[in-house]
Amino acid sequence: MSRVPYHELKARERIAAIVDPGSFSEIIPPPERVMSAYLPKLGIPVAFDDGIAIGRATIAGKPVYLAAQAGQFVGGSVGEVHSAKLVGLLKSAARDRLPCVFLVESGGVRLHEGSSGEIGIAEAIRAVFDCRAAGVPTIAVIGSDIGAYGGMGILSACCDFRLMTEHGRIGISGPIVIEKWMGKEAFDSSNRALVWKTSGGKTRFLLGDAEALVNDSTDAVRDGILSLLSRSAKPDLAFVKARQKFLQERLDTFGKTPDPDAIWAALGVRDVAAATLAEASEFVESFAPKKP
Amino acid sequence: MEKFQQSFPSKPVAWPASKKWALSGVVGSGNLEVLIEPNAAAPASVSYAVETSFPGYKDSWLAALGDFASHYAVGGTTITIHDQGASPIVITMRLRQALDLLTSAKP
Question: Helix A115-133 to helix A80-96 angle, to the nearest 10 degrees?
């Protein structure tokens, strides 16, 4: 067992650290060379796996389908091949009724590939809902520095569960994009504390956007995935209506609150300054209000 | 983009029969990925194929790749590289990592 910081690892190292040793069986591995047709035309080097490794594995003996994105390759962006691998993985998971786990690290759709990426992510999101309708658990693990943004932020939000670390962030537009549109007074993207307190793991956990918050170690992430594997949240009409009501109330309550600290305090965090510095496990145990 | 291929003589390498390939590195700024695969047809040489987004450094590349072929036993393999501006020291390190992954007993 190790305490390697999850966020420091590369995609394939994350898979190796989380699944049972030797259990990962990759689908479309690098030697098959299924690569982007667009990037070479733009003078950008391609990757053998198009920035995502997918396959089957076991975690503590439980079989899963698993994907890991490589954030270093064009920002972990979802191009044509990348999205096709996501869709194929989800369809396999739905067919075999096995949970599907995403180790997310992506800024969203690969804009270099135009509509192919946009259509691809839409197909992947539809495939997520096909899994959910079939009662197949889908879990997004968000614990990398790049986080889950754009289309991958949406896809992650569509999964049954989100497991986050303090390093992880989830959103649609990134901080720099928001600053460019709204101005530095509205959102200062160079203020890292503000950025992480707006879209980071602790705040997302408090707001109910992430179901689990764990320490930044591969063991903690693995244990967190295990605890979610057996659960599934089939989205029937009552579930969707309840969620909609919850989100509307949250917007009514906090829509005009300018400061993340005020939201933390209003949500029942005991000591905001100490909670800010606490490790994730300590945060969940001692500072965050207990979930009903 | 610049592409080139080159073979160098190298001592034959052995690896576990269960392994068909090994990959090291990620294509990113200042980084590269290295895929090493068996090539039974030429046991006493290594065949490189390089694709880099930084043209004009072929001589440096060939020096680094030739060095690696003479210092390490990598004969009987094909090594394919996707590069985004890695320095020679990073290239050598990634080649070593790929070779380690291929020859180690670990899965």
Answer: 10
**Which pair of tokens denotes residue A116?**
């192919």
Chain B residues 11-50 with a CB less than 8 Å from chain A: 20-21, 23, 26-28, 31, 33, 35, 37
Instruction: Please state, rounded to an integer, the average pLDDT across all residues of chain A.
Output: 94
Do the chains contact at B33 and A21, CB–CB below 8 Å?
Answer: no
The position carrying tokens 């890695």 is: B86
pLDDT of residue A231: 79
* A45 neighbourhood in chain B, CB within 8 Å: 1, 27, 51-53, 82-84
**Dihedral angle sign, alpha carbons of residues B70, B71, B76, B77:** negative
pTM, full prediction = 0.95
Q: Where are the domains of chain B?
A: 2-103
Burial B17-48 (b: 16+ CB within 10 A, else e): eebebbbbbbbbeebbbbbbbebeebeebbbb
For residue B105, pLDDT beyond 90: no
Domain A6-170+210-232 maps to which CATH number in 3.40.50.300, 3.90.226.10, 3.30.230.10, 3.40.50.1970? 3.90.226.10
B2-103: what fold?
Ribosomal Protein S5; domain 2 (3.30.230)
